[in-house]
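ARCHIVE RECORD
Type: protein–small molecule complex
Small molecule: zinc ion
Source of inputs: curated submission
Record status: active
Notes field left blank by submitter.
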Amino acid sequence: MRGAVIHAPGDVRVETLEDPKIRHSTDAIIRTALTCVCGSDLWPYRGLEPVGDPHPMGHEYIGVVEEVGSAVTAVTPGQFVVGSFATSDNTCANCRNGFPSNCLHREFMSTCQADHVRIPNAQGTLVATDHVPGEEFWPSLLAVSDVMGTGWWAADAAGVRPGSTVVVVGDGAVGLCGIIAAQQLGAERIIAMSRHGSRQELAREFGATDIVSERGDDGVARIKDLTGGIGADSVLECVGTAEAMRQALRCARPGGNVGFVGVPHEVAVDGEELFYSHVGLRGGPAPVRRHLPDLIDRVLSGRIDPGKVFDLTLPLDQVAEGYRAMDERRAIKALLTP
Ligand SMILES: [Zn+2]
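STRUCTURE (tokenized, with ligand):
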């Protein structure tokens, strides 16, 4: 099969790799329908995370089941499936408590920028659609496997409810999907923090009511201006830097909540500031599997269209250009067709 391999920062190539095989009775093999490049793939690409030995890349996928292990009965060959970047058995205590991304048997997907993928814990991880959906739905279904699921979790963790005032920190694919989630959950006011014209446009299309282009202390001051000096009910932190987290915590009102889903890089929370703020803080790898059936239904019924975050489509063989375009911020998110 063909798949992307990172060799060093800035060096991702598509190579011929060994075909994936069923290794455990709980595995499935899928033929990838679509995959993509994630903002988090840019950390090693930019040399901000060690690359180590050359290794495959990618954790987002939709596809058609080709083969299943003997313990997999929930999906069968020929079915179209959506999964999560974190696999889960859907039966352990953590899964039953609603946190499949902390499953006791969790494996993080890491080989999905390829034309075939082995899915561990397939029984609990994969959700099949009733039939093969029209191709127009595929980008949005792919988004559900990570960025939309993560945006949803950010809004859920931040306690967004009907009438809420919401601030979204970060205008990448996850932040934009967070706006969709806040809109769907009934937020009355959604303030997107963004300084890029095309992203502001998409933010408004997804439901943002206000745009704030200032950052840091100036950004916090603007949010206070817009919220009667109090701050927002819910803040979605979708970046993962120290500055973004500080900004998120300071934009929330006393008693408000921050949902943080940006993978933290050198983020430290000031315990004393948090103590006196009365702000609630919850985040982590999104429990995407918990939300999959609902999000798939929202996509197929036309209520959400998160696939619009893909503004570049490339054949898998040109994966290097996908990384480059996202690194240079020429693209929000690159879709790859195997
Ligand atoms: Zn589990």
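CURATOR ANNOTATION: The domain at 150-283 is CATH 3.40.50.720 (Rossmann fold).
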